[in-house]
Design a protein that fits this description.
The complex is a heterodimer of chains A (about 40) and B (about 500). With about 40 residues, chain A is an alpha+beta fold. Chain A has one domain (about 5-40). In chain A, about 20% of the residues lie in helices and about 35% in strands. Chain A has one helix spanning about 20-25, and strands spanning about 5-15, 30-40. Chain A has a two-stranded parallel sheet with strand order 1-2. Chain B is built from 21 helices and 13 strands. In chain B, the strands form two sheets. In chain B, strands 1, 2, 6, 7, 8, 9, 10, 11, 12 and 13 form a ten-stranded mixed beta sheet that branches. Chain B has a three-stranded antiparallel beta sheet with strand order 3-5-4, with helices on both faces. Chain B is globular. The chains are: A alpha+beta (about 40), B alpha/beta (about 500). The interface of A and B includes residues 19 and 41 of A.
Chain lengths: ~40, ~500
């Protein structure tokens, strides 16, 4: 899937996949990360 | 010589009116959407005290059921009340809200908590029957004020109301005109946390049989901050709680680290005792009013009761090795370092695999892992999944990755080495700490030898760092006697022989 010209908002989960890990996965793609954070629901 | 886990206590406070008035999900909703359907429906989903007592995870928290017994019950648990459930448990109690409001007043040294005269008259006899609070604490409850004065303070003087069964029964007064850190809101949170830590400490004295004056140091590890505008997190809630609990010979300090703080505190307490600095150290934390009803929107939307209606608290006593109680093995401490990274695999590697490998052990050498022990009844309907299961699955996956476990054995691993969660979502409360009492007992009973307690903390919530955090340690069967036998010592005979040899050599040199 091409992420060219895609803008990304990342909301990670502390006990799932945290924001920085998702950011890491998007490195090397052409997606633009607008916002990234990890939230805690517990 | 390692330090040992001597006792643990666990308390809950049923706080239904605090859910409505002090939980941040509700206070935020009142600001942004004051006429919302959610706020209208919320009161219909609040549980009674008896319902909260009969709730299986709560009975587990205070020690009337084991995690194993809870795990045998089919989920969800909220509509399966425990027959014969009691307020008192092996490790503590579930205190009703009205009694707790009086305990909050007894924990207030600045005359900030004011209660309605009739409410005090009605509630105090119940608190006087409490077997563990004592006259010194009860004497701090005041006669009360007129209802009209209470209403005026809340409506006109920036006081924070205290409610019971929907009625205004008191308030917390602000302690400064402009300092937000001493606002009524902050003081209510801090006093609720302090009072629940006091209750946990009083139960710890009971479960340990230790006299109050024997405890030398208290570490408090909640997520609250106390101070004024010049030192917002000045702290020492530990000493504040120790004072009310009657620990006259104790000083203390606070450890902060979000949900990981208790595990940091256990490692520090164990180190203080191992170093010989103090002989008896208590680690304690009270509950969080802010987190009450945190996921209640989802619970209400799905027709469930509001399950986050209790404040949690615990206290743990760590003492010098007595040759009997389980050791806190400081040779096996895992830590999430600055360089670890945030991926779940990196986190669990740093907390579980690395410390075990350093000690020459395998993952399956640990009988039970206690990570985030949040009650899935609360988290699953809110979309956060089963948090403990997710943690155990990742630990099992690492065991598969290192080749010590077959892929097909993953579910069996989770069942054998994990457990269901039972703790209320009170942040620091579920993070490993609730298993300490059960682990101690299971090790003493010979049911297992080693448990790993894992604390994890979301530092990024404070917006100072994007870092995650965590620390782990191993609680294990006491090796005292065996270790002493194995360690080569010097006998009296050998000492005598060495002295005789030295004297002979000295005499020979004189002769020469």
């Amino acid at each position: 899937m091409s992420l060219l010209n895609r803008k990304i908002i990342i909301i990670g989960d502390r006990d799932g996949i945290p924001g920085p890990a998702i950011e890491e996965c998007l490195k090397g793609t052409e997606a633009e990360i607008l916002f990234s954070s990890t939230e805690c629901f517990v | 010589m390692n330090s040992v886990l001597t006792a643990a206590s666990y308390i809950l406070v049923h706080a239904p009116d605090m859910v409505v008035h002090n939980g941040t999900t509700q206070t935020t909703e009142r600001v942004v959407n004051p006429g919302s359907e959610y706020l209208k429906q919320l009161p219909e989903h609040i549980r009674s005290y008896d319902q909260a007592v009969a709730y299986a995870p709560n009975q587990t928290y205070i020690g009337n059921m084991t995690p194993g017994q809870l795990g045998e019950m089919e989920q969800p648990w909220h509509d399966m009340p425990v027959a014969g459930a009691t307020r008192e448990g092996r490790y503590g109690e579930i205190m009703p809200q009205d009694e707790f409001l009086l305990l909050m007043q007894a924990s207030d040294m600045f005359d900030l908590v004011r209660l309605d005269r009739a409410f005090v008259a009605k509630t105090k006899p119940a608190l006087e029957k409490h077997p563990l609070l004592g006259q010194e604490i009860l004497a701090l409850v005041k006669a009360g004020e007129d209802a009209s004065d209470i209403a005026r303070a809340v409506n006109e003087e920036h006081a924070e109301g205290l409610y019971h069964m929907g009625q205004l029964v008191g308030y917390v007064k602000r302690a400064h005109d402009v300092d937000a850190n001493l606002s009524a809101h902050v003081l209510l949170e801090n006093l609720a946390s302090k009072a629940s830590a006091v209750l946990a400490l009083r139960h710890l004295l009971h479960t340990s049989g230790v006299a109050p004056e024997e405890i030398e140091y208290v570490i408090e590890c909640s997520e609250e901050a106390c101070g004024d505008m010049n030192q917002r997190g000045g702290g020492n809630m530990a000493k504040a709680a120790a004072e009310v609990a009657g620990l006259g010979n104790a000083t203390g300090s606070d450890v902060r680290g979000f949900c990981a703080a208790p595990s940091h505190a256990f490692v520090m307490a164990a180190s203080l005792v191992k170093a010989g600095t103090f002989k008896k150290v208590a680690v304690t934390a009270g509950g969080s009013t802010a987190k009450l009803g945190m996921n209640a929107k989802d619970h209400v939307r799905k027709g469930l009761p509001v399950l986050e209606d209790v404040l949690g608290g615990f206290a743990v006593l760590i003492t010098a090795d007595d040759g009997k109680n389980p050791e806190i093995d400081l040779d096996i401490v895992g830590r999430h370092t600055v360089g670890t990274g945030a991926s779940p695999q990196a986190v669990i590697t740093s907390l579980v695999l690395s410390p075990l490998e350093r000690a020459g052990m395998k993952i399956q050498d640990i009988d039970k892992f206690a990570a985030e022990l949040q009650n899935p009844d609360i988290t699953k309907p809110a979309g956060a999944g089963d948090v403990p299961q997710a943690n155990f699955k990742m630990i099992g996956a690492l065991a598969v990755k290192t080749g010590e476990l077959d892929r097909g054995g993953l579910n069996g691993f989770i069942e054998q080495h994990g457990m269901v969660g039972w703790a209320p979502t009170q942040g620091h409360i579920p993070s490993g700490a609730p298993y300490m009492g059960f682990a101690r007992q299971a090790i003493l009973d010979g049911e297992m030898e080693k448990a790993m307690i894992i604390g994890k903390g979301s530092l990024f919530l404070g917006r100072l760092t994007n870092q995650f955090d965590g620390i782990s340690f191993v609680l294990r069967k006491n090796r005292g006697a065996a270790q002493q036998q194995q360690e080569p010592g010097i006998s009296k005979e050998e000492v005598r022989g060495m002295i005789a040899e030295a004297l002979r050599s000295f005499a020979a040199s004189m002769e020469g």
